[in-house]
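[09:14] KT: can someone run the structure on this one? pasting the chain below
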Amino acid sequence: MNDKKNLFSERIKQGLDALGVSYGDEAIEKLVAYIELLAEWNKTHNLTAVDDLEEMLSIHIFDSASIKPYIKGARLLDVGSGAGLPGMILAILSPALEVTSVESRNKKAQFQMYAANKLRLKNFKVENVRIEDFQPKEKFPMITSRAFSSIEKFVSGSKQALATNGRWLAMKGLVPKEELKILKKMNLKFDTFALKVPELDAQRNLVIISAPK
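[09:31] RB: done, structure tokens below
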């Protein structure tokens, strides 16, 4: 098993190097442990459609890590992150970043709480509520989503949690042209960035939307 862990560790390092993402030994250990926890829980809780450890590296770890260069500020809100993606990965890679995950589905929120405790992620917490019902005391400069509905629903459902001059980061596959038309109708400014995810043969794009003035 140690040999397999070592191989996993090296692949994670190579992938993060390719993304230009910095990391320490502790982060690598926690990413390997996260994958193992996710695979274990997935057997009985069906947290993600991906159950192959090899695929999890590219589809979950590298994909989540690919937006790290775009994260600015000290606090991040992750909406509908399921098994903690990308929020938990970003918390592991950025110990100084305070990450809050909002997940309405109980079993997925429970996994995040369990994993955060096992990995001793002091900079990660979970709110088991619908995003529309989440009223933070302090608003967030950045809000992310990876597999949460349409961009329109993401923006409208979380706008009460976004700080003045904040930004939404919506992770997408292909450039969502129809959804971007709706953003224009909403008078929201946005930029799209192509993401090159190691070991993933699929288009990935990030849409960064500015808070309304």
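[09:33] KT: thanks! The chain has a mean pLDDT of 93.
[09:34] RB: yep, looked fine to me
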